[in-house]
Give the backbone structure.
Amino acid sequence: MRPKIFIDGEHGTTGLQIRTRLADRDDLDLMSIPPERRRDAELRSTMLREADIAILCLPDEAAREAVALANGSGTRFIDASTAHRTNPEWVFGFAELEKGHDKKIASARLVSNPGCYSTGAIALIRPLIGSGLLPADYPVTINAISGYSGGGKQLIAQMEDASRDDAITANHFLYGLALTHKHVPEIMARAGLTRRPVFSPSVGRFAQGMIVQVPVHLDLLNGSPSLAAVHRVLAGHYAGQGVVTVAPVDSSERLARLDPEGLNGTNKMELYVFGAEGAGQANLVARLDNLGKGASGAAVQNLDLMIG
């Protein structure tokens, strides 16, 4: 029997992307609420309880409500909101977090999908803390740029429709200026940081794609490692799987620029170690599609693990 999958919030940006990625699958039974019954609370509750796996693409409170509505039913969940990302009862849905983590996702009932910025930042930071190179209390700075699709339907409309009263005409803008972005708690919890990082996100005038940067002073790391040593830790951590790759040092040295749209349409993530050997500094960079490995692609990857 094919597993029954219900996307609660399928008409939002992430939900639509997940639906599109699953549309041609013949190994799944996709459940859907007809558009004219989207506000039918009883039907929604029934589908949540009858689904084998429910994927939540909802605001935080609605995601918590959905889990409560299915209480006692045995439904498994993948939550794309921020509601459960630091909850220890939920398995964090980044399969490459550490060796064997994919198996934890596969057997979990409750999986929290990572945020897009968080995916890049955690991928860079966690292996270095785990190896002992990066102190957990290091004053981390994270600089990032995302395509505007990461802001959902309203931001997409503001960027694409110049006739709107609230249209955004800037080609690039910073936000989260108070340094309280919603991804910071999960970055700290899942990367292993004990000091709150300075996180500066921004949006560019391109639909999707993302670059996350973590610059570090090597002499402030344990043992004052070389660029090559940092690279070895990252490469060793992600060896043996095909989703997160670490670019070879020599190919990174040859790059003059890095396009945030370079992995669009994929569920891949590339990591880079930039800098000049002996200069004492490194810029650690992650590139991914904010709607791929950063959202809907990760949800589908987690779904595939959960259904075997």
About this structure: The mean pLDDT is 95. Residues 116-290 form a domain with the Dihydrodipicolinate Reductase; domain 2 fold (CATH 3.30.360.10). The two ends are 13 Å apart (CA to CA). The chain is about 35% helix and 20% strand.
